[in-house]
Each structure stands twice: as C-alpha cells, then as structure tokens.
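@channel sequence for tomorrow's demo:
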Amino acid sequence: MPNPGLATIIEAILFTASEPLSAGQLAKLTSTDRDEVESALGTIALRLTGGIRLSVAEGTYRLVTAPESAAAVRSFLEDSSRQDLSKPALETLAIVAYKGPLTKTAIEDIRGVASDTMIRNLLARGLIVEAGRSSEPGRPQLYAVSHTFLQHFGLTSSAELPPLPEAPADAN
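structure tokens (generated this afternoon):
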C-alpha cells in the first residue's frame, strides 16, 4: 500500500524543482527506498488528471501542464512576459548581469531573500539562461544573461555594461 504522505511530499518536491528528478534522487531526498518512491509516483500520476500532470522522460519525473492547456498557458506566459519587470526582477537581473554566471544561492546571498520566483520569471522571459553547472558540492545550476538580454539592451557582451556607480563613503 503506497504511503499517501510520501506522495504528497514528492509532489511538493517536484512542484518546486527547477529540473526533472529521478526516482533515485527522490528516494534520497525523502529517505525512502526506490520502490516506495515509484509507488508514490504512480499514485501522483493517477491523482493528477487535470491541468497538471506527471511527466516521465528518460527515467526522470517532472510536473507539467496538461497538453490541452498548452495554448492558454502559452498565451498567459506571453502576456506576462510583456509586462514591465518588477523592482525585485530588475535587481535579480542586474546581479546576474554584473556578477554572473552564478548560482541561485549566490544570487540569494547578494539579494538577502529567496529568488526562485525571480529566476523562474527571468528564465521564462528569456532574459537569463542556464549556463552550466558550478563546481561547488551538488553542482548547482549557474545562471547568466542571455542573448535576448544583450539584444534588448543593445549590447554584444556583458563587458559592455556601464560601470556601477561608486558606493557612497561612510559619513563617520
């Protein structure tokens, strides 16, 4: 009998994951064995029959939108990508432009707040791209500005970015 709590945990992990995960990775993350994870994945696949589905490709799992929703989702993403960037999105983009390529953790260290949503939005808009993996433990994803970013700002490389203003000297 599958553990319904495990299915809920795995579904939450897949919802927040930025890349597909294998059953082995999920087993490690949940401290359970692979058979239990595969059973829970079966439960998730049966449960998700609406707008969200469990996708399996090359032994990895990811939550995706239902194919019949593709046109509406594409329209929504196009509309939202035409909106102006928020201040937090611009801040995140500036950090990637001036300091990149860098990891999500490095971005968050500089900003001082979680940046998952900002990174996802900038990726969806095509302003940043996944630029390989860091050599740090766990080999986290690196992010860099995209050709779309450079084109939008009339640059041929990040080296052409204007210099940052000097930080004001302490008044003490």
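heads up for whoever presents: The chain has two domains: 4-68, 84-160.
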